[in-house]
């Protein structure tokens, strides 16, 4: 794996080779990663996994025609062949009126903030195994837990670099540490499974293995002997484990490609009141050690903090250069590169701001409702906003949790759900999309 400086130089070199081969413009993306994971099950070593990857991708433009090609061979001869093949492909491709690099005057020239994404300490395989064993032991010690799917501890590192033919080059490295446990509670047909996991750039930011294991065990045991929900309209409270998916649907609907294709349920809602007044959904890609922190986007534009929803109103789209051209707008620094091909869109460290009520107070006036901890299936229509997903969780009776329930469906329309959404005050910052417990009134529950 190249270090960030070497990766940046290699990407610049490939861009120059493409220009010499006849490209009108080009950009190159280098990505590499290495990781090691140790899995244990029932106190014994189950699996050891080591993975490494290194890839460089080239995108070239011949007028309005473009092509992308990639390789894991970084030798000089391979790069020359890569450039020549990309040019031939581009010249044979159809024209695209929106293709092109990001506007040159918007490229970032700043060094970027110090994001502290690299942990200099690297755990040994023995240390990873000890962490996984501790997590599983804690999970299996929870009353009601009867079996284990195993626990895993892993660590890795990565490098990303981008260079363009019109003046940008940059690179950064990152590390990742993760810990998970999954166990089974109960016996026979009554068995229930659940898990807990955490991921961070720095190992010191992870909870203890015992905490992860204990949480996995408690979650599995709490699901034993689930009842059934009756059907009807009622308030639904989403646990932080699943509430982030609601904001995820919002993010998908405000991507430039969805808006440009007119395939978003938020089409023509720019500036509209889609949440209750006071609701704030924001992103900050410059949070130190944030899971989605990055100094620049996949086209060389600066990333920045911004509100996506402010006082309940939708404040803007997420645009790469191609979708921005389609919409007649400026790109917003949200371009993402995942290997070869044209940029996609991503966000950095999104959160829905906490409300004022505790989760208990948020549920206090619910005579009959449901608290959802698990969502199943993909029943969401991004064009209409219609929402219907299988779920499991706990029944709410007279304001308190009253036992596990399973095999029911929660349904509604995302526009109506957003308008009725109320956040609790239990926001935590360790996910890519951080959302507290939320309550949504007026949903339809389909059970017995």
Question: How would you describe the overall organization of this protein?
Answer:
The protein has 448 residues and is an alpha+beta fold. It folds into two domains: 4-221, PmbA/TldD superfamily (PmbA/TldD fold); 226-448, no CATH class. It contains nine helices and 19 strands. The strands form four sheets. Strands 3-2-1-4-5-6 form a six-stranded antiparallel β-sheet. The protein has a five-stranded mixed barrel with strand order 7-14-15-16-19. Helix 1 (4-20) crosses helix 2 and helix 3 (125-140) runs parallel beside helix 4 (209-222). It starts with a helix and ends with a strand.
Q: Figure out the total of helices.
A: 9
Q: What would you report as the Rg, rounded to the nearest angstrom? A: 24 Å
Sketch the topology as an H/E string, one letter per element.
HEEEHHEEEHEHHEEEHEEEHEEEHEEE
Cα(first) to Cα(last) distance is 56 Å
Q: Which spans have pLDDT < 50 for at least 5 consecutive residues? A: none
Q: What is the typical, i.e. mean, pLDDT?
A: 96
Strand order in space, largest sheet: 3-2-1-4-5-6
Biggest pleated sheet: 6 strands, antiparallel
| Record field, number of beta strands | 19
Helicity range: 10-25%
């Amino acid at each position: 794996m190249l270090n960030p400086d070497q990766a940046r130089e290699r990407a610049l070199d490939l861009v120059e080779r493409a220009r010499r081969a006849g490209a009108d413009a080009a950009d190159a993306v280098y990505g590499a990663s290495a990781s090691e994971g140790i899995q244990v099950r029932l106190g014994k070593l189950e699996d050891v996994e080591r993975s490494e990857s290194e890839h460089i991708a080239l995108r070239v433009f011949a007028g309005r025609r473009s092509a992308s090609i990639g390789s894991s061979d970084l030798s000089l001869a391979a790069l020359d062949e890569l450039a020549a093949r990309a040019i031939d492909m581009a010249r044979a491709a159809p024209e695209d009126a929106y293709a092109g690099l990001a506007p040159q005057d918007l490229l970032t020239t700043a060094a970027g903030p110090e994001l502290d994404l690299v942990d200099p300490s690297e755990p040994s395989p023995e240390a990873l195994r000890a962490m996984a064993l501790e997590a599983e032991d804690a999970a299996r010690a929870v009353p009601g837990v009867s079996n284990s799917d195993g626990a895993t501890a892993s660590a890795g590192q990565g490098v990303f670099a981008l260079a363009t033919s019109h003046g940008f080059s940059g690179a950064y490295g990152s590390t990742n540490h993760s810990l998970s446990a999954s166990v089974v509670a109960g016996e026979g047909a009554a068995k229930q499974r659940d898990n807990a996991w955490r991921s961070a750039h720095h190992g010191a930011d992870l909870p203890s293995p015992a905490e992860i294991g204990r949480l996995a065990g408690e979650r599995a045991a709490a699901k034993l002997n689930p009842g059934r929900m009756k059907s009807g309209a009622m308030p639904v409270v989403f646990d932080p484990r699943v509430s982030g998916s609601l904001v995820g649907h919002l993010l998908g609907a405000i991507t430039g490609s969805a808006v440009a294709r007119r395939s978003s349920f938020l089409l023509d809602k720019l500036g509209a009141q889609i949440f209750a007044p006071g609701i704030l959904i924001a992103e900050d890609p410059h949070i130190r050690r944030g899971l989605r922190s990055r100094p620049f986007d996949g086209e060389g534009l600066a990333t920045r903090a911004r509100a996506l929803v402010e006082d309940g109103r939708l404040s803007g789209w997420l645009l790469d250069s191609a979708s921005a051209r389609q919409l007649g707008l400026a790109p917003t620094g949200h371009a993402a590169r995942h290997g070869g091909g044209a940029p996609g869109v991503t966000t950095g460290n999104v959160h829905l701001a906490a409300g004022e009520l505790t989760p208990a107070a948020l549920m206090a006036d619910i005579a009959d409702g449901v608290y959802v901890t698990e969502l199943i299936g993909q029943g969401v229509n991004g064009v209409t906003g219609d929402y219907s997903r299988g779920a499991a969780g706990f029944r709410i009776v007279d304001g308190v949790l009253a036992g596990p329930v399973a095999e029911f469906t929660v349904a509604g329309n995302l526009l109506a759900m957003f308008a009725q959404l109320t956040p609790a005050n239990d926001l935590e910052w360790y996910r890519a999309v951080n959302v507290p417990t939320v309550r949504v009134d007026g949903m339809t529950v389909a059970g017995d």
